[in-house]
Structures are given as C-alpha cells and as structure tokens.
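Morning run. Coffee first, then this:
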Amino acid sequence: MKSIDKIPVGKIGRTTEMVKTGVKVGGNYLKYYSKKAFDNELTRDQLDEDNAGDIYDGLKNLKGSALKVAQMLSMEKSLLPSAYVEKFSLAQFSVPPLSAPLVRKTFKKYQGGYPEDIYDTFNSNSINAASIGQVHQATKDGKKLAVKIQYPGVAESISSDLAMVKPIATRMFNLQGSDSGKYFKEVEEKLIEETDYILEVEQSKHISTQCSQIEGLLFPKYYEDLSNEKIITMDWMVGQHLSEFTKENFTKEEGDKLGQTLWDFYMYQMHELKAVHADPHPGNFLVDKERNLIAIDFGCIKQVPEEFYNPYFELAVPKNINNREFFLEKLYELEILREDDSEREIDYFSTLFYEMLSLFTSPFHGNTFDFSDEEFWSKISALSEKYSKDAELRKMNGNRGSKHFLYINRTFFGLYNLLHDLKAEIDTNHYKKYCGSLEKQNI
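And here it is:
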C-alpha cells in the first residue's frame, strides 16, 4: 500500500480535501442520473460504490476524526448501504501509512529522539495503520514490542473535522434544534480522549488488570517509560485480526469459545466496572493459535453513570418493558420522551422504542442466545428499513435519548456483530461468575 508523505493539518488544507471529495461525489450523481434517464431499472448500487470509494479515499488521506467517523459508521450495518460498510470498514485497521521519513520526523517531535536511539531495533514500515495512529514493530532488551505513533495534527483538527461532518450527520439522523449539540459534544470529547495516549495507557492497564481473570482473554503489557501523550509502547501480541479469523473455516466450538469470551468481557465491564471498551470492531481484537482472544486497544472507554445504567437495563427485563406505566417512566428518565411532547409524539415514540428495545434486548431474555440466528438479524434489518422510510418520523424532532446512548448502543451493536461473525451461541449468564457486586441484578 502506498505510504503518505504529508497529512493536511490546518483547517484550510483539510477543508480543501473535503471539497475535492464533494466535487467527485457530485460528479457521481450526475453520471448516475444521466444513465437513469435512459434506464429506469438502473439501481443505486454503482452510485453507492463510487461514492463510498471517493469518500473513503478522501478521508483516508486526512486521517484523524474524519476517518474515525467513517470507522464508526462501518459498524452500523443496518444504517448504511453495503458498499459504504465494506469500504469504511477498511478504516478499522487498513489505511495508507505514513512514509518512513515522516515516521522518523514525527517520532522525534513526540519523543525527543529518533526511534533507533530508544529501541534496539525499529521497523520504520508500519505493520498496521488506522484512523488515529499506526503501529510499528520494535525490540528492546530482548522483548518484541508494538509501538503506536499518533498521526501529526490529529488532536488539533478534531473540532474542525466534526464541524465539517455535522451538517451531513444532522440530515442523516434528523437532528433538530440547539439541543442536538449534546450528541456532537459527546463524540468530540471521546475523540479528544482517544488522542491522549497517557490516558489510554492508564485505561489499558486498569481494564486489563480488572478483567485478567476472564478465561480465554489476554492483554499486552504496557510500558509507561516508553510511552507519552502521542506514543504507546506495549508487548507485541501474535494473532490474526478477528475479521481475518472469521473469514476462515472455524469450528462451532472455536466460534462459541471466542464468542463467550467476548460476551463475558463486555458484560463484566458493563455491569461490574460501569466502564466499557466502546470501540468493539474487529481491528481491536486478535485471535492466537490457542484460540484465545487478545484485546489490544483501549483508547475509547465509556463510563456508564448509574442514572443511565439503571433504567437502561431495567428495560432489558420483559416484565418491565411490558408494564406500560413503568415503561413510559423509564423512557422519560432516558430522555427518549420529553415533557413538552404531545400525545401523538408520546404514542409514536413509545411504540417505536418498544419495538426497538424488545428486539435489541432479546439476548438478555433467556439463559442462552444464538447470534448465528438469521431471523434475529432479519428482524433488525426490517425494523431499521421500516423506520428509515417512515415519513412520519422525518417530521418529528430526532433529538431523542440521553447522550450516553451514542456509545452504549454502539458498543452493543458492535458486540452483536462480532458475535454474529463468530456464529456464536453463548451462555448469557456466564459472566456473573467473575462478578462480585451483582446480587441486586436480575438481567
């Protein structure tokens, strides 16, 4: 893959790149409608493919939060056409890396010396490149290490990048009014945290220590003396990316084992730690030869406050969601219903979220759940399709729900997709064996 010698870091430079991408997308629409005039049966498939390719090509050269948003959207398989999901998923762990000269220059700026001054050996060619940083292999004192280097200008461009994305997201999600700003602020704050590598090392050490007892789960060791705000040094872990593993022929036992580990890992974080790894895409997990799961990235950790946690999981219990009075009370607590809603809005949104929550929380309704069940995924797709075409919904204020839904729903939907890729059937209560403070739970 061709490397990059320069990344636009200023607002003008990055905006110019986005404008170029917009011109290409506009050209794709002109070509599509010109052909459509002579062929009524022409589908949007080629248009989606062309647009996805051009948008991704523009974002991958910008890197940073613009590319991170594409990565987040690639996990929303029921929201975007498959062409976008396929192309944007490359942002998870496969984007053009920085060139070797730019790596040395960037490293010296961050660390005060060149890589060869600090490590015994250092491969200046990136092993993996993603949206915020890229990983290099190094050795020191006989240990094989992974060195993650943040791209230059990423932290400084977050606000301006999101300002460019905001109009698109506002239309896509039908956000209205000034209170929509809380959602963008939540994304901005999490992205800023992801560029603080000192915080990431702290989070990585905390979660790996707390979750070390979970069977089949491994973590790298982190080296604080070789890390700083823009560089992280950790053990080099050997394994396949989860996305590569799931493309191969694996046994049901292997899929179930890895799926159970994933489920236990996430449920333990959610219910015991009240803080969760909120970036569950396959680029953040490896599978070793013993079929252990290796978690390698903890830049995005979402704290789960009690005022959100309690009503959210109370509605995972069927008897609660079927109690109309209790259900409406929790919808207000979760900011899905608002005090200024009309009766029509209350009826509409309570019906919508009853359908969504009944389906989305179904893995919690029994002792086991089979994520290979295509009927479950067909229902999710059908529900998404139903409301994406609902003209009534487009007339209403889309600002619904606590800001915490953004990353919690992203976490669960990403987890569900990983478990589906593994075709895993899991014991939904198995994680409780690791927990010490779950006596009051009934989920």
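The CA atoms of residues 6 and 291 lie 39 Å apart. Good start to the day.
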